[in-house]
Amino acid sequence: MSRQPLVGGPVLVINSGSSSLKYQLVVPVDGEVLASGLIERIGEVSGRATHTSSGRSHTIESAVVDHGAALRVLHDQFAEHGPDLDQAGVVAVGHRVVHGGPDFSTPVIIDDAVESEIDALSPLAPLHNPAAVAGIRAARARFGVPHVAVFDTAFFTGLPSEAKTYAIPAELAVRHKIRRYGFHGTSHAYVAGRAAEVLERPAVGLNLVIFHLGNGASVSAVTDGRAIETSMGLTPLQGLVMGTRSGDIDPSIYPFLRDAAAMSIADTDTMLNHRSGVKGLSGVNDFRLLEDRMTEDPAARLAFDVYIHRLRHYLGAYAFLLGRLDAVVFTAGVGENSPMVRAAALAELTEFGIRLDPDRNAPRSKDPRIISTDDSGVTVLVVPTNEELSIARQAQQLVG
Ligand code: AMP
Q1: Is the CB of 58 under 6 A from ligand 1?
Q2: Which sign does the torsion angle of CA 399, 392, 109, 77 carry?
Q3: Rounded to the nearest whole angstrom, what is the distance from the C-alpha of residue 213 to the centroid of ligand 1?
Q4: Cα of 335 to ligand 1 centre, how many Å?
């Protein structure tokens, strides 16, 4: 994110999920991707690994028992299809870590103590942090370069107290580290920096509302390059309606469904995370399908309308919190690719100074761009996110 000059060799960026491992070998200075890959179905009977380099993809199918085995597969894929990792001059391995708890506000070089601390945060992210630790352990054993953890929560550790505090008994919150953490922070921070560059304005004095709309979705309010609000909370379940997650909901749904439908806490949690959102309402979570179905299918129409209603709800709230709004920014799969979502989210807001230009909103592009009219009081932008590049740059800066 920083605009300091960046030099040096590539960074291997690793994103370990519970049953998958994504990687990218990326040159921080210019963002060139030398190779990328995805290892899926780790721990299952049959696994699959796809490696892409020099414009060609190679897929192998074989069991991958754990993250250690996944790192062996990664190493073999590089050895067979290039580039040769031993010759590539890799300066660091950057690990995406979902939860950094209240204290990890910046990237850190991973030593045994840091690895243990990330592991100790697992109760806050039971699906994500154990997977990250497994990936970190395996990668540290294999690659003798500095390893850097970049936390998805880091950008939000400085939220003002009134924004990050839940109104529950204070002692309970302290004891169990219960607060609003926020997620997608690497993306929000990267996009805030890129938006300032596109607007040719310093981050200081710039007030942004950033919509990261992917399968997971969150919105942040940013001023002076710092986040002052974000929609996700203790977990990534809170906030916007998402592909399969409900977003905001009355927590009394847990006892209600226990009594009304004999659903356990685990049942309701799974339902809210995996069978809700636009998928729960319409049967599909891919916005391309949802938009295709909307004219004929009232359920798809309602899912879209509920999704948009929540976006507008947060936009209004965050504009008020900021006091003045300079720009609205859209990013991630839906935000970058759906003119329909952007148009609906900002429809009929000219009274508030927001005027989308339909001709600028419609075309597809991979470039950051302004999609509001020249006379719009609030600038509207599409800024493609690039979490891997951001992680690579942060890792490279830390190792110097
Ligand atoms: P992400 O999590 O950022 O990879 O985003 C995934 C989401 O982006 C999925 O819901 C996709 O359907 C959505 N998406 C990707 N391409 C398009 C598109 N052309 N139009 C609408 N949604 C899209």
Answers
A1: no
A2: negative
A3: 8
A4: 8
Residue type, 245: R
Residue 397, class by beta-carbon neighbours within 10 Å (0-12 exposed, 13-18 middle, 19+ buried)?
A: middle
Whether 337 is in the pocket of ligand 1, judged by its Cβ within 6 Å, is yes
State the DSSP string of 32-68: -EEEEEEEE-TTSSS-EEEEEETTEEEEEE----SHH
Question: Checking DSSP bridges between strand 217-223 and strand 92-97, what pairing results, if any?
Answer: unpaired
Q: Does 185 contact ligand 1 (Cβ within 6 A)?
A: no
Which tokens belong to 338? 């759906």
pLDDT of 7 reads 55
State the distance from the centre of ligand 1 to the C-alpha of 289, rounded, in angstroms.
10
pLDDT at 127: 83
Question: Where do the domains of the chain lie, and which CATH numbers do they carry?
Answer: 11-151 (3.30.420.40), 199-382 (3.30.420.40)
Known catalytic residues? 152
Cβ contact 203:197 at 8 Å: no
Residue among 307, 337, 342, 383 to mutate when testing ligand 1 (max atoms within 8 A of CB): 337
Q: Which residue type occupies 35?
A: A
pLDDT-based confidence at 2, cuts 50/70/90?
very low
Best of 242, 281, 287, 290 to mutate for ligand 1, by most ligand atoms within 8 A of CB?
287
Rounded Cα gap, residues 25 and 10, in angstroms: 6
pLDDT tens, residue by residue, 297-312: 999 999 999 999 999 9
Beta-carbon contacts of residue 138 (< 8 Å; ≥ 6 apart): 66, 67, 68, 70, 71
Contact of 49 with 20, CB cutoff 8 Å: no
The answer to whether the beta carbons of residues 105 and 157 sit under 8 Å apart is yes
| pLDDT reading at 1 higher than 90 | no
Dihedral (C-alpha) 238, 124, 179, 156: value to the nearest 10 degrees? -80
Contact call for residues 112 and 1 (beta carbons, < 8 A): no
pLDDT tens per residue, range 140-192: 999 999 999 999 999 999 999 999 999 999 999 999 999 999 999 999 999 99
* d(C-alpha 326, C-alpha 15), whole Å: 33
Q: How many CB atoms lie within 10 A of CB 255?
A: 11
Q: Tokens at residue 174, please?
A: 């302290």
For residue 77, which of 64, 60, 102 has the smallest C-alpha distance? 60
